[in-house]
Structure formats: C-alpha cells, structure tokens
Write a structure and sequence with these properties.
With 160 residues, this protein is of the alpha+beta class. 31% of the residues lie in helices and 18% in strands.
C-alpha cells in the first residue's frame, strides 16, 4: 500500500505520462522509453526514507546530483548506491528530479535533504559508469548526453 506522499508522486508521474499520450509524438517511436518519466515509471522502484547516518555530513541544497555522487564515493565502507529519480520533499506538494544514495536495504541516504527530509522517493540505482560529471554535475537522467542513450536503448538492470 502506498503512503499519501508516494501516491501524490505517482499521480504526478501519471499526469506526465498522460500528457505524452496526448501529444502522440512519434519521433521516438523506436526508442525503449519516450521520456525520463516513462523510464522511471517502468524501471524505478520505491525507496524508504530514513534519517541521515551520523557519519555522513549534510551537504548544500540544490546540488543533489553532486552531493549523492560525492557521498557514495567518500563512504565506500557503507556500500551505498547512487540513485536518481523523482522525490517529494516533506511539506512540499510538487515532486522534483532528485538524486540520493541508497543502502543495501533500500533505505534512502539523502545528504541534500537531511534537514528538509523526503517523504517519497521513486528512482533507479544507476550503474557505476553513470555519474554526474563536472563542471555542471547535471543529473544522469537530466543531461542529454547520458539520458538520450538510456531512453533509446534502455537501461540494463542486470548490470547494477
């Protein structure tokens, strides 16, 4: 059973998918996914919000992609996985593209929203070859050079 926050995020995602159907754009008909929304809807999973572990420092807001990648890299002993998708911050009615880490149990380790807290996280654990790159640290699911191949060819979920 979905929480109210998860249902709100799923409804928001559904509205984006319905808009794609309404637009009936055939330019990507041969692609595996028509949009990032469809990619996350098909291959994403829910992750459990959790408190930030004491050994991880909160990092600046609005830098979630770089923050999550740095947290994964700087804490290899925790076996964290870099994850991107959509999340709903506590007390915020609109989901947003977001990045966080997850532990082996599927719990969220979110250095960006440590104070804010997230109430729903739907995303994809990305292979280690896919990380934000300097200088802009755009999300893998936002940067055209990394997103378009994933939409066209799909994401090999076995390699994660």
């Amino acid at each position: 059973m979905l929480s109210p926050a998860e249902k709100a995020l799923l409804d928001w995602l559904g509205a984006h998918l319905a808009l794609l159907d309404l637009l009936d754009h055939h330019g990507v008909a041969e692609w595996e996914h028509r949009s990032v929304y469809e990619l996350v809807a098909r291959q994403g999973r829910w992750f459990t919000p959790a408190a930030l572990p004491a050994q991880i420092q909160p990092l600046p807001e609005r830098q979630c992609f770089a923050n999550a990648a740095a947290t994964e890299r700087e804490h290899p002993h925790l076996h964290l996985a870099y994850t991107e998708g959509f999340a709903l911050a506590a007390d915020c009615p609109v989901p947003t593209a977001h990045a966080w880490c997850t532990d082996a149990s599927g719990h969220v380790v979110d250095p960006t929203w440590s104070e804010l807290g997230g109430s729903a996280y739907l995303g994809i654990v990305l292979p280690s070859t896919l990380r934000p790159r300097p200088p802009h640290h755009r999300g893998v699911l936002e940067a055209h050079d990394s997103l378009f191949p994933l939409l066209r060819d799909g994401l090999d979920t076995e390699s994660r």
